[in-house]
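Whiteboard transcription, Tuesday session. T.W. wrote the structure tokens on the left side:
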């Protein structure tokens, strides 16, 4: 009897992540076309673009424009609508101060102070910061090339940069924090592919934040592609990351994102970061590896029932591939 093909088998080196992205690329292209059509309706003229960025950046920016255009329509704010739509009339050279290239990947990074702010979720106090024409014309470079390169180099050294390349290429920096302060980062479903994060003097902390949030967007892309909508499920479980009870989707998102954070620090502490970090930073990586593992163990009994509520066999196999310490189980039965 022949066993079914396991699409996640090669995932540890990123190859099946790219295969996965090919799986949703047609969905994203269709989504781009729908957004363009919606923008044409909202503006009353055919939507056109002078920009030819990689699709991961183009898709994220289209979501920024649609987000603001909808709010402009709700509030009859003609100036906001024009500013949002005019982004696409700019020459690509206007974006150069905000573009960072690493290997074959390109990232667009802008400070939130220059962005259009719109409250998204009152409960979590997270705001949507969107990029418009006037922002690109008037903003200043947010981070040095060396800082960004060092952060991306750390992620690349752990062989996890594909998450950022695919679903984290637009980054909005929130607030500067002292090194000892806690930092905030998040993603927003209407702006999937955009990372919102604080930053400090440490590229290592920045690398963790942008990787973590890219993983959330990565999972959201798959959920949207497969039209999996499980916001309200019957049961809830304790989340060590929120210190509260969370539904199935919250448990799965947290487990997946922090499993990747665990592997990030583990790989750096086991050799991948020896030439990139000093002794104090390596000690931090050792400590974070142990800390993340201790939190992940707290959801060991909740992962499988949470995954069962979501009902996706591919997500189940994905999570058990990355979750540390859990014996992988077969989801394909003998036929």
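and on the right, the sequence the group agreed on:
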């Amino acid at each position: 009897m022949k066993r079914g093909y396991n699409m996640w088998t090669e995932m540890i080196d990123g190859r099946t992540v790219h295969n996965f992205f090919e799986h949703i690329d047609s969905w994203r292209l269709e989504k781009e076309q729908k957004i363009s059509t919606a923008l044409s309706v909202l503006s009353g003229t055919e939507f056109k673009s002078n920009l030819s960025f990689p699709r991961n950046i183009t898709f994220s920016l289209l979501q920024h424009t649609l987000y603001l255009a909808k709010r402009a329509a709700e509030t009859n704010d003609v100036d906001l609508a024009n500013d949002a739509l005019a982004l696409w009339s700019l020459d690509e050279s206007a974006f150069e101060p905000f573009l960072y290239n690493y290997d074959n990947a390109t990232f667009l990074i802008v400070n939130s102070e220059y962005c259009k702010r719109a409250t998204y979720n009152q409960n979590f106090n997270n705001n949507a910061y969107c990029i418009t024409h006037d922002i690109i014309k008037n903003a200043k470079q947010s981070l040095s090339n060396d800082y960004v390169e060092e952060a991306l180099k750390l992620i690349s050294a752990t062989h996890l940069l594909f998450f950022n390349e695919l679903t984290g290429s637009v980054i909005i920096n929130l607030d500067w924090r002292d090194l000892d302060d806690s930092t905030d980062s998040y993603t927003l479903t209407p702006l999937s592919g955009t990372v919102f994060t604080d930053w400090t003097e440490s590229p290592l902390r920045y690398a963790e934040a942008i990787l973590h949030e890219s993983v959330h967007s990565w999972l959201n892309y798959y959920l949207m592609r497969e039209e999996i909508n499980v916001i309200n499920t019957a049961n809830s479980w304790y989340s060590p990351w929120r210190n509260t009870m969370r539904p199935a989707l919250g448990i799965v998102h947290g487990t997946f994102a922090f499993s990747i954070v665990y592997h990030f620090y583990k790989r750096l502490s086991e050799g991948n970061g020896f030439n990139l970090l000093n002794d104090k930073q390596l000690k931090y990586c050792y400590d974070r590896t142990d800390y993340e593992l201790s939190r992940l163990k707290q959801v060991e009994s909740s992962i499988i029932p949470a995954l069962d509520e979501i009902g996706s066999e591919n997500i189940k196999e994905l999570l058990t591939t990355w979750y540390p310490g859990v014996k992988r189980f077969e989801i394909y039965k003998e036929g």
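Someone added at the bottom: The chain has eleven helices and nine strands.
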